[in-house]
TrEMBL record:
Gene Ontology molecular function: oxidoreductase activity
Family designation: Belongs to the short-chain dehydrogenases/reductases (SDR) family.
PANTHER family: SHORT CHAIN DEHYDROGENASE (PTHR43976), SHORT-CHAIN DEHYDROGENASE_REDUCTASE FAMILY PROTEIN (PTHR43976:SF16)
Keywords from the named record: Oxidoreductase
Name listed for the protein in its UniProt record: SDR-family protein
Amino acid sequence: MTLIEPGGARTSFSHNLQFASEIAAYRDTPAGHIRKMFETAGNELYTLDPQKIAQAIVDVATSDHPPLRVTLGGDAFGVVQAALQSRLAFLQSQEALARSVAFDS
């Protein structure tokens, strides 16, 4: 099994979105920010070629040793990299505590 983590692909998806009336109470929430992103997004948000994504997925799926995760696109790479760096920094901040619970030698 391989998890595919793609970035924004340029398809007709965003052009066909229909939005309900905005609810003011949600405007400054994460959901509100995502809504605004989709409402105002142009091609700059969708930089990936769907044909290339499909071919990359086929290549991974038919490889002898497919990886657990595949990140496709510079935008997705940046998001995944930032998340992993954040997790690693948190882990490193816990090193002393983690090592403190071993038996004394």
